[in-house]
Amino acid sequence: MSRVSPRHPRAESLRIRERLVDGFRAGFVVPEGLSAHGRGEAFDYIIGERTTAQASKAVRAAVAKLLLAKRPVISVNGNVAALVPDEVVELADTVGAKLEVNLFHGSAEREVRIAKYLREHGAKEVFGIDRKFSTKINEIHSDRRKVDKRGIAAADVVLVPLEDGDRTEALRKLGKKVVAIDLNPMSRTARAADITIVDNVVRALPLIISEAKKLSRLDRAKLHKIADGFDNTKNLRAMVGLISRRLKKISR
Ligand code: PTJ
Fold it and tell me: Separation of 9 CA from ligand 1 center, angstroms?
């Protein structure tokens, strides 16, 4: 039950923040996750807390990529578990992807907690917690290098919602396709990914799910056309242009 008054002018934003704080208190969001969220909030405020045309275009391409994938994986960190637990589970079911807990601030305890939370939200299988299947991607210079042999290590397409630094570059070097969701179109992740959805995960995930239900009726040739026709650099430039126009407008 939310403690935020529905009459507060920024009720939705406060409710989202509340989910993250609850996740922090439950022990699956790290303190750094709260500040990462604040950075995201700032970008979201500037873009108008809405899904832009650029984000919708990226969502379509991302869905096509996920539907074409042979071994798609959705990577889940503390913030993602707190913000969109039902949605990551539903998306995994819809596109036939695996769910894997993968943390920047590695902690076996937190991995187990997040996996349990995802199971409580309907996940049948969660990778990334069984040491038997653990392996390392040496190119990644953070705790995120620890991956599951059945999941990220074997994946051809990885969805990284709300991400930090160098992992995207490393995954791409290994020949994997990366779909990122990041409110900052200038971040390294946003620029390194094959497809970047510049939107809040709380809006992007439901949209990805509904688009996946629609596009799953298309044949592979049509899906290829959608995925291959997407230009990430062009889309990110358009987002940066939109942000600078919004800033000019706000500061007038
Ligand atoms: O749970 P862990 O240990 O894996 O840690 C997770 C965090 C988020 C703490 C870790 O990945 C991290 O430090 O991330 P960064 O480097 O702060 O990057 C997070 C990016 O996500 C930034 O570019 C933010 O703008 C963006 N972001 C934050 N909140 C959202 C978001 N993008 C989309 N939706 C959000 N709600």
Answer: 25
